[in-house]
Fold each of these.
Amino acid sequence: MNAPPRVLTVAGSDSGGGAGVQADLKTMLALGVHGMSVLTAVTAQNSLGVQGAWELPVEAVRAQYRSVVDDIGVQAVKTGMLASAELVETVAELIAGTDAPAVVDPVGVSKHGDALLAASALESVRTRLLPVATVATPNLDEVAQLTGVRVKSERQLRQAAEAVLAYGPRWVVIKGGHLSGEAVDLLTDGSEEHWLRAPRHDNRHTHGTGCTLASAIASHLARGLAVPEAVAAAKEYVTGAIAAGFALGGGIGPVDHGWALSRARGDAPSEA
């Protein structure tokens, strides 16, 4: 039997299972690709926030990456939590030497506002990681961190995109989910624009949306879609996952990565 397309996530672990490597691998399974992982950090995390985080040594991250890529190979790479400048620079170097599209989610803070990237690493993200990205997927808080542009309205998404593209990614998706009204994202490479709109679902259980979107884009790129089609398909998948998000613990629950599979089986919606 032929192996499915292979996608590698380079990210931190979320012990609560809603974000990070766990969300990435669930997304990849749901979208029909083989997910592989390089752990960069371990977090103690639940529905209420991040209680602790411990980054892995550079040697461990590099060894995991080489072990997977040199033997199994990859059709796409996705990055998430990288924690430190040293890890950012190491991962950027590894991606630059890999012949596969890279989706960079420049994770700065968790859904609960917990810092997941050292302030000293921001310059490395700007000058080393973003230039090797096929697609960068910052949310509005990450745009502000990286560029100083603070988006308050939809018309400012273009300004944010220009500021991020100045650092060198081929494409950028500016995620406008924090704005009011429709959930609108802007995908652009500086010459063509794609405005992606979806209804906003009244569901606070949205933990893992950023990780899920980036992993979905990487999965669709690995399956051979062009960037605009991959991002549009990923947006559709994430919108469904948000609509089906469910309560866990006493805080913000995760999106449902298996929503499409449950629908195909005819499962009844679970009670939140």
Amino acid sequence: MESTLGLEIIEVVEQAAIASSRWMGKGEKNTADQVAVEAMRERMNRIHMRGRIVIGEGERDDAPMLYIGEEVGICTQPDARNYCNPDELLEIDIAVDPCEGTNLVAYGQNGSMAVLAISERGGLFAAPDFYMKKLAAPAAARGHVDINKSATENLKILSQCLNRSIEELVVVVMKRDRHIDLIKEIREAGARVRLISDGDVSAAISCAFSGTNVHALMGIGAAPEGVISAAAMRCLGGHFQGQLIYDPEVVKTGLIGESKEGNLARLKEMGIEDADRVYNADELASGETVLFAACGITPGTLMDGVRFFHGGARTQSLVISSQSKTARFVDTIHMFDEPQSLQLR
């Protein structure tokens, strides 16, 4: 999978990032997302694959592109047999977020990226469009910290695993009303808090890389993005746990569904019998081979954002593979017109 799709998926996220970045700072988050979706889908449909979107542009939306269940790839088109033998190709599941952090792009803030994860058919958890309680930490803490423990307990464990004082630890938390008590507890335990407005996929992955000064992600964010984070963390050997949140009173805002009871019924219809189950990275991204790719739209902890110059642009991407056990940073210059100069202005 990596040898046949590795470069292709990098180009998929690059094209989405370039398209979205043209709307950086213009206050149009929906447009920034729409153009990223269109660019990602157009590039996907030129790949020789049989892909199925399992996490996309909304479970209940009438999204015209990259909706859950949509088939993508040149070998899913009506004239597929003119290009390939679809029956011989590996079927893959794809989780996408063409513009992770639409508000970040709209207001010119750091941390937005185009991102996707792929695996064999059935290899990615088809998360409902709910929220998820998440805990991400470096590989050294894998299996030691636990989402069922308090933040204080986990910080003590993390301190021991990383051989750092609690005061040296930095925990990323999304700035939401539901996290007021969590933020207070982390600070009282002695750790430092880095608040973000959006984009917790980047924060989760940053935990797995030394030198980012991010040691944990705690709190509640979107469940689909939790699966994408888990895919990357599985490849990197980092710690990730997620637990679905179905009670609107816990999330306080934005949760699909009118009631706790209604959401529990929806989960049961989807085959999720244990609504309170805690999933780890291997369960959320269970495929034999998992690939993750991301490209910075705006500057972030791990990657630079898209930088335009006369006649082209420069991007920085990250592709992570469970197959080769690698994390590759890819610096690419895209030439739109006849190249006059490849130096950034």
Amino acid sequence: MTNESVQNTVLGDVEIIRVVEWQGPFAPAPDLLPEVAGELWKDNEGWLVPDHWEPNSDRAVMAVRTWVLRSGGRTVLIDTGMGDGHQRPSRPEFHLWRGDLLGGLARVGVSPQDVDVVVNTHIHVDHVGGNTVDAGGEWVPAFPNAQYLIPAADDAHFEPGNSEGNGLQPDDRLIYEDSIAPIHRAGQAVLWDGRHRIDEHLVLESAPGHTPGSSVLRLASGNERAVFVGDVLHSPVQILHPDCSSSTCLAPEQAARTRQRILHRAADKRELLVPAHFGGTGAVEIRRDNGGFILGEWA
């Protein structure tokens, strides 16, 4: 199910705009989160349906979206979705996908030339595909004036010429070659590690586990706080059971430790939690409860 809905809000001095590329039932819940008991989905059906779970098919409902942040006079994109027309032969659901990121951005008044910073929270198919566009058979940066902030650890892991690059998934080389390498060739890639400040309101921090360079972006403006967590979480059931990692996490135990750390801070600092793939509005407050966490209000 495609979904062109747009939603915007303001936190402090930062405007946040949600641009949805796709939303609907995706992976079977047991495949996506194999450590989550089936009873957990059923016990929480009242709030998981329809935005996060489709019980008839037992599929997790997910979204692919880009977050647009207007901060300090600049336009920042968080992740670029699946892109348009990329070869992904081992993933039929993504092969030659026809996304419309540029159209979605145009509908909220953002042209490719307007974008100053592109954040790739990590190098996966559904987070970097819109980095580039096909210009007569050659992949070139979609945002000609932007810096692309790419986690150095992911760049090293997925770059085909590196020693680790030989034992990855079949499409990983294609993803790097059509969505990351053109950014390097254009001189627009900025590799970072540990912590990287974008401006007075926005800071990137490493959050490894899902991938070696998986990262989060923290927003702090006035009294308002948010954390854009990429794929640290895939479904809100992981808020209830943060020890459960997804089947796509390369280092599940490390991912679980990172998830716990991110959730503890979000609860303590009252940060709005903004994952990449939650259905519905896509952002939620969390609270501590008996040593764990519960969901608060959806944004």
